[in-house]
Amino acid sequence: MTASVIEADQSLPAEWRDFLALTKPRVMSLVVFTGLCGLLVAPAPIHPIIGFTAILCIALGAGAAAALNMWYEADLDALMKRTASRPLPAGRMDRQSALHFGVGLSFFSVILMGFATNWLAATVLAVSILFYVLVYTVWLKRRTPQNIVIGGAAGAFPPVIGWAAVTGDITLLPILLFTLIFLWTPPHFWALSLFVRSDYAAAGVPMLPVVSGPTVTRQQIALYTIPMAAAAIAPWPLGLAGAIYGIAASLLSAAFFLLSLQVLFNRATEPAGMKPEKRLFAYSVLYLFAVFGALVLDRWILA
């Protein structure tokens, strides 16, 4: 254990801002949005208060998983520049507080979801938390460069949870939305990991750019973009969404693919020369917001 993490165990009581930071609020915003979209496109009405409660539970569950991730990875965070200022490695919070916060929030979010909506939605929420913490964080993160490929499933559950909270079932459309996020995660995260590769190398995390180098990573980004685009467009030809969504998803995916080609043909090895990677990473966030937003717009216009 590093000195900074040891100091964190001797820190003063944390402020509310530190507990909020544990939930990774910027990451949570995308999780909440995709969960909301899954709820809004479901083919059944839901009372606004119950719908709000369902989205709150998704947010709390995502925050709980993030807190447990930070608790377990405090030693890694202390070794990386972009994470060294987080509450635990910075010494603003002790690890036990983070653990209790994450576990308590996990149970509360799942139980509230079950009583407010249905136990299928609660079960999927519980699976998503456990998958992120046990499969991705504990098992995969430090062992294999495929960590983000398999672990990406954890972030793909929210639209399924939102849909299940309304309908009590899981059909083809939420499965396609899950698949879209699952296939989107590797190119999104690998674009980031290319220009923070030195951080992962210093911490000994076997991310793909560290293990296989930038060239292989760029090839994988381009390759994953193709099935990702197919999953994004699929609801249109399958009759699950209309032309508004289909055209928007096609154009947005084409732009993603063009950016991935710029990344593929970039030969820079230092962050200063990785502007295509930074553009793709920024666009990938916008892409997911826009595709899911287009689905909701399409459903509301055609309703």
Automatic annotation (TrEMBL):
- Which residue windows are transmembrane per the record? 27-46, 52-72, 98-116, 122-139, 160-183, 221-238, 244-268, 280-302
> What membrane topology term does the record carry?
Multi-pass membrane protein
This protein's pathway reads: Porphyrin-containing compound metabolism; heme O biosynthesis; heme O from protoheme: step 1/1
What terms describe the molecular function in GO for this protein?
protoheme IX farnesyltransferase activity
Reactions that this protein is recorded to catalyse: heme b + (2E,6E)-farnesyl diphosphate + H2O = Fe(II)-heme o + diphosphate
Has UniProt tagged this entry with the keyword Cell inner membrane?
Answer: no
Q: Which GO terms describe its cellular component?
A: plasma membrane
Q: What EC number(s) is this enzyme filed under?
A: 2.5.1.141
Biological function: Converts heme B (protoheme IX) to heme O by substitution of the vinyl group on carbon 2 of heme B porphyrin ring with a hydroxyethyl farnesyl side group.
Write down the HAMAP family for this protein, in alphabetical order: CyoE_CtaB
Misc note: Carbon 2 of the heme B porphyrin ring is defined according to the Fischer nomenclature.
**Protein's UniProt name:** Protoheme IX farnesyltransferase
